[in-house]
Task: structure prediction
Amino acid sequence: KPLLLSSFAPMRFLTFFLILLLMAMPALAQGKLPPEFRTTDLPLPRFASLKANKVYVRSGPGMQYPYEWVYQREGLPVEITQEFEQWRRIRDYEGGEGWINALMLSGKRNALIRSEEPVEMRDGASSDARLTARAQPGVIASLRKCLKDWCQVSTGGFSGWIPRKSLWGIYEGEELN
Result:
């Protein structure tokens, strides 16, 4: 005798799927990602930097997705906003978003000088401190320490303090020691 499927079977499946989706909604509304989008226990979002001079940014989390563009700037800070297996969804200082392999990222904290004019680097965390250098817009600096309004950075053989508001790669209020 042939097995006859009830015409209600697809409806039951759809109802079951909708119930599962409704159960997940509170977690999604609170910003919690399902486990398949959380590969590590590290906080999201978080900053990292590019580990290589050539990093392909893909439209999705896998080699099967086409690449959208290529970063050619080792050390560039990026913000990790999502995880999927060994892939990380990132955002750059211009707002560009895409997926890159986690192997192309470093936990080293860098910042980008984001200003129209050169930024004064001082030997202390104060605008009254002695001027040590001027950092050009777009320069990548290694973050050493960040206090309330100032960050200690090093770049091009110079080290000093720069106003936090002139940097992209550190969150407002985030302290770095």
Q: What stands out?
A: The two ends are 74 Å apart (CA to CA). The chain is about 10% helix and 40% strand. Residues 1-5, 16-31 have pLDDT under 50 and may be disordered. The longest strand covers residues 77-84.
